[in-house]
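ligand=zinc ion
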Amino acid sequence: MNDRAGSSRGRDARRSPPVTRRPLTRALPLAALLLAGFVFGCSGSVVRSQLPDPAQMLDEGSWYAREAWPHDGHPIESEHFAVYSDGAGMEARARLASLAEDVYAEVVDEMGVDPAAMFRFPPDQEKIDLYANRYNVLEGGGARGYYAGAIIWSFDNESGQGNMSVPAVRVALKHELVHVVEALLKGRYVGDIAVDDPRRMPVWFSEGTAEAMSGGSALGAPRTLDQMNALVSRYGRINPISWRVDLPPSDAVLDAYAGYYYPMAQLAIEYLLDPSGLGRSPKDLAAVMLDIGNDVPFEVAFEAHTGIAEADYEEQFFGLMDGYLPQSEPPLEAIAVGLAVLLGAALMAGTVVVSYRRWPAAIPRSEAGGSGWSRLSRIGFRAEIAASAVGAAGFTGLLVVQIAFSDLAPYAPRLRGYLLAALYLIVSGTTLTWAIRRWAAEERVAYLIPLLVVVATITAIVAVGVMF
Ligand SMILES: [Zn+2]
């Protein structure tokens, strides 16, 4: 983190944790690569956009407090935002501005903030700057919020960093806009205040609030004691309330941030907000931020608006969680997934058996008066159908299990993934049924039809890659 304690830059530019590579896409890379190679090899129209002409770029912007990135001189403005970029398309900027307006309205409403009365913008700014980076890359990935601005990847980003699906951008944007609201309520960077100054807001509160409000841009807060203990045994029993300043950046820290610090800080804030915790509201969190802007020490503001002293919360944290989190959840998800996989396999087997009975490929054609298929070709055909059916059912099962049990972000479109698996099974079953029927009609093309299952499988792999 460049904004860690004591750094000379010392700006309050909070980050979202890096986007980690998901196991789901790792499971299916080869086929996707093959297909990608095929698509790019066949298509002459796939052209990467041109980098903007450096001579046209303007060397200025509020984000220079973070990154010295010029912009292309064509910002677009919406009611509350000015969207700058290093070359994002106008449509991509408009999409980001429109999403930002949505998210902004949500944050302001949930935190009970009155922007006209409470926000203190820098003197030269009236709107929140968004830098939509298309080519530039933030060190460590993710997005950044700062005083009256945020840096986030554009919807047409070409750096390969950042998930461009709307749910992923929305969560990252909300996380950063919570930081922006925090900075506007305080009316300054945190870095203008020394680390040991009592008015400095601790990182756990800032990141925990951004994670709790956005639903979690990392892996989300642990939901059971078993889950929390698993995190503790992996990363150590680190008290989230003791996370007051950013840690010096390293690969290990980035991993611990995404896997432990952000989820545990989210849990710490969620406990404050939950009616079965301390029952406070995001309005109380905003009140803490506003107090800090009026030079009230954080400890004083925190206790006044949450009803617990920060030092007591730190001391009692794990004890409070013992009483708050349930021990574990019944393995309902595992049972449901197991049943779904069994049902899928049974459906596929049933489809094949029923269609054999209906269009009996088993009858030797010579006996049935046809032109006659040899015994060997019948065996070959049946083996092909059986292998395709087992493969399709197995792939469906693998897909469902991966979606259910991979470390996906809370916003990952799991439901759409399950629907895709169901659709894939239906398409495969229909294809094999059709092949058997073709066989009954004595058409050699029947042999080729099961290959469509391979096409369906590759299509499903690509769809999963896009989705997650
Ligand atoms: Zn953050």
